[in-house]
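User: I'm writing a tutorial on reading structure tokens. Could you give me a worked example: one chain, its sequence, then its tokens, then a sentence or two explaining what the tokens reveal?
Assistant: Sure. Here is the example chain.
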Amino acid sequence: MRRLYVYCLLLLLAVNSRKLSAQAPHSSTSKPNIIIILMDDMGYGDPECYNGSGYHTPSINRLAAEGMRFTNFYAAQATCTASRAALLTGCYPNRIGISGAIMPWASMALNPKEETIASLLKKNGYKTSMIGKWHLGAKAPYLPIHYGFDEYLGLPYSNDMWPVDYDGKPVTDPANPKFKYPPLPLLEGDKPIRYINTLEDQGELTGIYTRRACQFIKKNKKQPFFLYLANAMVHVPIYASKRFLGKSGVGLFGDVMMEVDWSIGEIMKTLKEEGLDKNTLVVFTSDNGPWLTFGDHAGNTAGLREGKGTSWDGGQKEPCIMHWTGTIPAGTICSNLSSTIDLLPTIVKLTGASMPANKIDGVDISSLLLMKPGANPRDEFAYYYHRNNLEGVRKGNWKLVTPHRSQTYKTYMPGKNGYPGGYAEVNVPGALYDLAHDPGETQDVQNAHPELMKELEALADKYRKTLGDDITKSPCTECRPAAQINSGEKK
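And here are its predicted structure tokens:
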């Protein structure tokens, strides 16, 4: 009888061991999987756990409740191409010759000599995939599979770069600026597999991308992988699938937010079902702030100043949540300064990959994720815009704004129903803001802090000496050229 009891006990232990093994195919010492979910034009205040109202984002809320929510996380620049180049390379975009949002016919592209998160992880044994908006080169060989990604499904540039008007109808008038755009292709690798021709087609993208992301996770669950999911939404023209249209009760933007939230829930559910959640770092953030001129089709900044296309915090301060079950403490908030350029060195550290050969600007923020006492890897940040304009610097909670020209949304009424409002250009005087007490950048306190002004002006000069500044005609001594598509030469 005793032998039978012992035998049954051993059998039970063996069965439980197999169950645990099936749930956790990676050992505690294996390389972590990495997923970066990058939203397009999502404002700091758009997720419900940041300030979103009227609609619900339970999956994003859960991501924050189980992970770490960042409150001082910045995109490197407030526009599409520059921001994405920075995220993938760990560099301020001006360091690598990238600026603005390039057009489908642009001659500029990310230089293939630049090492990306994907290329570094691929060399370290990772399977790599990109899904969604690329916007770093419109044609081969300047598409993702030439920059370290094993596979790619997505749009080569922004979803509004198409010959379709704001009402969703094809443009037939040559005088309309949209007439010059080519048809918008959905690419598999380097080749189009279909075209996005209607608003209904736009509404399919979130579902298409989500299904592919889940397939990639399941297919590669037994090896380390890197997934970069760059969503089309909530960049205009926004649209949702039939399943979500009209469901929020607060308009199309709310419907789209609900579908985006569903997408994140599907990805997290897949990780858990495949036993990968304890060995996967998930980063959720946005490329820049909301495109406020589109009014009810744009998001919100939670009271931050201005939005996309400006170096005010409404343009660059982003929602960011990092989730890693059992490694990042659940329900935590990080108020330390950090940026998308910090993702590359952090991921390199966590995965044991090698750093790029060329100089980068990001710093390893893994100490923040692990909540190491006293950790503060980034204490300063440079606000560059346009080709190479230094429009501000931040140190701690203090932001120095340098004199510059800026777009503003405040002069005109915002648009409605997918149509934009207007812009104005204004001269911005130099100013000092205490972001701890004035996150909306409303009160210039430079006269009360002359010593701080000297310190921050010296910091600005430090950046001018290396990365340059077109405003003061300071040359960049450390910049590297972008690729020149048409001639194959370097800029």
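What the tokens reveal: The longest strand covers residues 33-39. Confidence is low (pLDDT under 50) at residues 1-28, 487-491.
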